[in-house]
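Severity: low
Component: inverse-folding endpoint
Summary: output formatting inconsistent between runs
Steps to reproduce: submit the following structure tokens with default settings.
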């Protein structure tokens, strides 16, 4: 009888994956199609083991012990390992605050823990638009403030569809600068804050923004500071004031970056793992 029930459960696993009560998961991509099946299959194997061992157990205490193997806690634990989608995590802050190196190391750490992740940075200087931005930043070309702001915005819109596909495929994106940088830097030059935000409206809203802060003196001591157009201490301070106006405590976390690399990495990784574990909505929200 036990083998019949076990075989029935194995055949039933494909129906289980459709149940929103198991993992609240909707199969929409190649990666996510397999995840619920793995969870339900693991559950079925546990049930089968329980049935087989129960059939050979003579002690009621032994049966109680076996039943504990497939309690609600174990099922919930399995389900939590299947995220609804990847998390969109952005690192913001002044130039030379260590964002790029930290972003790349966060991706390595997440992948080492079995969490698919990808590094993205803005501006993306590999596109045609990004090439114009690079020429501006390295002082080879000159644009007025409105033009360069819109070029930065276009650079992010170029990446929107590809980013959304990756997120829906379960890949967490660690992004080095995003719309907030574009708005903060342009507003720091004197452009109207709301005007700067307008062309960014409709882009993907991050699940978490980590704002790295440093004092002006600490920033100026960083290697390479001053190589690009905006790397001037006074201007960087104005940028930080603009970040204060953009900050939303519901999904922003401010972190002092003036510490050892390892200590900062550990702190950032903790926040990233928490954000990934707490994705509750498959749908991505939009900016502003």
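Observed output (run 2 of 3):
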């Amino acid at each position: 009888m036990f083998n019949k029930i076990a075989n029935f459960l194995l055949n039933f696993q494909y129906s289980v994956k459709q149940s929103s009560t198991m993992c609240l998961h909707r199969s929409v991509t190649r990666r996510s199609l397999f995840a619920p099946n793995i969870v339900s299959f693991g559950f079925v194997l546990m049930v089968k083991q329980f049935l087989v061992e129960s059939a050979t157990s003579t002690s009621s205490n032994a049966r109680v012990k076996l039943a504990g193997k497939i309690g609600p806690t174990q099922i919930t634990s399995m389900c939590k390992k299947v995220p609804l989608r990847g998390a969109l995590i952005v690192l913001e802050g002044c130039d030379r605050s260590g964002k790029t190196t930290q972003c790349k190391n966060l991706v390595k750490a997440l992948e080492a823990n079995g969490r698919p992740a990808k590094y993205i940075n803005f501006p993306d200087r590999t596109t045609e638009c990004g090439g114009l931005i690079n020429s501006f930043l390295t002082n080879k070309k000159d644009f007025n403030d409105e033009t360069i702001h819109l070029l930065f915005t276009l650079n992010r819109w170029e990446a929107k569809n590809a980013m959304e596909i990756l997120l829906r495929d379960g890949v967490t994106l660690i992004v080095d600068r995003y719309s907030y940088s574009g708005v903060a830097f342009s507003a720091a030059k004197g452009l109207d804050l709301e005007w700067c935000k307008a062309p960014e409206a409709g882009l993907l809203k991050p699940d978490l923004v980590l704002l790295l802060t440093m004092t002006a003196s600490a920033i100026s001591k960083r290697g390479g500071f001053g190589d690009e157009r905006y790397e001037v201490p006074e201007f960087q301070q104005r940028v930080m004031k603009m970040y204060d106006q953009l900050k939303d405590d519901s999904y922003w976390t401010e972190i002092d970056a003036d510490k050892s690399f390892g200590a900062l990495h550990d702190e950032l990784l903790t926040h990233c793992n928490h954000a990934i574990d707490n994705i509750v909505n498959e749908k991505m929200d939009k900016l502003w």
